[in-house]
Structure formats: structure tokens, C-alpha cells
Design brief:
This protein has 313 residues and is an alpha/beta fold. The two termini are 28 Å apart. It binds pyridoxal-5'-phosphate (PLP). The site of pyridoxal-5'-phosphate has 13 residues, from helix 1 and helix 2.
Length: 313
């Protein structure tokens, strides 16, 4: 069963509630994650317990089991997290593991299982893979929970398309025709203006709200095979370009079934600028992920060097 929300974090919080989490529940969350996820959980009254991630983006099960009732397990950038590893070494059951598939629309693991459907509850933020104004989906993979979920349904609502989204769609279409990287020109200007303005967490964003009718329609119109092939072809084409700039590709092999959200690579700032220049004409966006606080000394150096080439069209 699938329930739709405006944002992935809303699906995540609803998913935890369906699994039985209550105020004061302890939720293990990777330290390496965007701050909005942790902020949403804290606003719900959950206690977040950070755990570490290894360089191949798996839970660091060599460290002690986080003392938590539930764990958020992330399929970073569409690459499958090892559910068995976490279940077998840390002893979390599939009902305690919430599969965070925010990045992994259409992606599969080595057993050909769709990501987000490998534990009792998972979620996807499809707004990250398709250019729409909003879109989160909660995947309830256990029929015995479906009745509970009936009560949380939201009817999709009509919302006006924001001007920024219309602009983005137009520039992507125009760039394809003209070869002029309009989006990258706009991004460069925006980066200069916003450089010193940190993005604040909007507490309202955690309150469940309905997905827009237009976002849902775009998801249904999106052909999974064509989009998966586009992303996989782009990944393969970009690996040598990014490597030639001197960056380290995180996954130089693209396993069968993986539909990458982006191309993740490690590089210092000077190399990132080189990558940006090399991809500028292709209109592709390059950005650091996640937004780690600049004074963060707990995260290992490689995490400060992680950047993405986004495949969002
Ligand atoms: C790994 C991960 N999980 C969850 C989320 C939350 O998704 P959304 O921004 O749609 O709430 C994000 C994005 O911010 C994310 O990167």
C-alpha cells in the first residue's frame, strides 16, 4: 500500500508512528544525513541516536549497536543499503528498520527487490527524482498494517505551480534545444547571492500534508524503464569525465538494478570547481551533500568532500 504526502520527511514520521514509535522513542539515524531529517524527528519528540556510515555508504556495524528501538536505514543516492547486515549484526527486525529510500525511486537491490519495499515500512521522496513541486510516498509493505494506514490518508490537492518551477522546466527545455546551459547560468548567479545565507528548518514541514495533484500526475506519467535507462546511461557517461578532473568516484561499478539519483564523488574544492566547469555546458548541477555544519568535527574528512552531480532534469 502507498500513501502520498508533500514531503519525504512527513512520510518518514508517519511511517514511524505506524510502526509503533511514540514520543520519547529512540530512533537510530545515520550521522551522515541532511539536517531536516533529524530536525523533523526531534520535533516529533523522538530521541535521535546517531550511528556512523562507512565509506561504501553502509551502516558501520563494526561499532556497537545503537541503543534504539528503531533505525532509519538509508539507500544513499539509489544504491541499496544492506538490510541483512543490519538485521544480522545489530539485531534490528524488519519491523524496526525504516527503509529511507528518499533517493531511490525505481531502484532495485541485487535480488531485484524494489528499494523501499524490503522492510515493513519504507519511504521515497519522489520530488528528488522528478522535477515536481512536492512528493513523498510511504510504502507500507505489510498487509496487516494497511488498516491502520487507512486513517492517515490525505487526498491530493490542487496547488498553483510556483514560478520558480515553471522557470526551471522552461530553461531545461530551452537548454536542450539551444545548447545554452541556462540553469547553470542561473545557479551560478544564485550561488553568489545566497553564499552566506544558511537555510533554516521550517518546523511546519514536518506536519503531514497532501501531495499536489500535478506532482502525482507527473509521477504516474513517468515511464520507469525510460527514466531508469536515462539515469544509468548518464552515470556511465559521466564517470570518466569526473575522474579526468581528478575526483574519486564513490562507486565506479553501477550494479544491475541500481537507478542512481546522482553521481556521488569525493573531491576537495579546487577539484569540485574543475568538475563544475567540465559539466557546465551539459547544464548539470554539482553540489555538496549533505549540508554539514562548517564547524562539524565529528564527521570524517571524506564526508566533507562528498559532492553530487544531480540527474534531476
Ligand atoms: C536521505 C534523505 N532522507 C530523507 C529526506 C527527506 O526528504 P524530503 O526533503 O522530501 O522531506 C532527505 C532529503 O532531505 C534525504 O536526503
Amino acid at each position: 500500500m502507498i500513501l502520498y504526502y508533500a514531503l519525504g520527511r512527513q512520510a518518514m514520521c508517519e511511517g514511524l508512528r505506524i510502526l509503533g514509535a511514540t514520543v520519547g522513542s529512540r530512533i537510530a539515524v545515520p550521522r551522515f544525513i541532511c539536517s531536516d531529517v533529524v530536525a523533523s524527528l526531534s520535533h516529533e519528540g523522538y530521541i535521535t541516536v546517531p550511528y556512523e556510515i562507512t565509506r561504501d555508504l553502509q551502516a558501520d556495524v563494526a561499532s556497537p549497536r545503537p541503543t534504539a528501538e528503531y533505525i532509519i536505514l538509508v539507500n544513499y543516492f539509489g544504491f541499496a543499503a544492506d538490510v541483512d547486515l543490519v538485521a544480522n549484526t545489530w539485531g534490528f527486525t524488519r519491523r524496526q528498520i525504516l527503509e529511507d529510500n528518499a533517493h531511490g525511486l525505481f531502484s532495485r537491490d541485487s535480488n531485484d527487490c524494489l528499494l523501499g519495499q524490503r522492510t515493513t515500512v519504507g519511504f521515497t521522496s519522489f520530488r528528488k527524482s522528478i522535477r515536481v513541486r512536492d512528493g513523498g510516498m510511504l510504502l507500507i509493505n505489510d498487509a496487516s498494517l494497511a488498516n491502520i494506514a487507512e486513517f492517515q490518508k490525505f487526498t491530493p490537492v490542487s496547488r498553483q505551480t510556483p514560478r520558480s518551477l515553471t522557470f526551471r522546466r522552461l530553461s531545461v527545455a530551452l537548454s536542450k534545444r539551444s545548447g545554452i546551459p541556462l540553469m547553470n547560468i542561473a545557479r551560478g548567479a544564485k550561488r553568489k547571492v545566497l553564499r552566506t545565507i544558511p537555510q533554516a528548518f521550517d518546523p511546519e514541514s514536518r506536519v503531514p500534508s497532501a501531495v499536489s495533484v500535478t506532482s502525482l500526475a507527473a509521477l504516474r506519467l513517468c515511464d520507469a524503464t525510460t527514466e531508469s535507462e536515462r539515469r544509468r546511461a548518464l552515470y556511465r557517461a559521466l564517470v570518466p569525465v569526473v575522474e579526468d578532473c581528478g575526483a574519486e568516484i564513490l562507486f565506479d561499478r553501477l550494479p544491475d538494478g541500481v537507478v542512481p539519483y546522482a553521481l556521488p564523488f569525493l573531491a576537495p574544492q579546487t577539484t569540485v570547481r574543475r568538475v563544475r566547469r567540465a559539466l557546465w555546458l551539459r547544464n548539470l548541477e554539482v553540489f555538496p551533500w549533505p549540508d554539514l555544519p562548517p564547524d562539524d568535527s565529528l564527521s570524517p574528512n571524506w564526508q566533507h568532500q562528498l559532492h553530487l552531480v544531480s540527474f534531476l532534469e
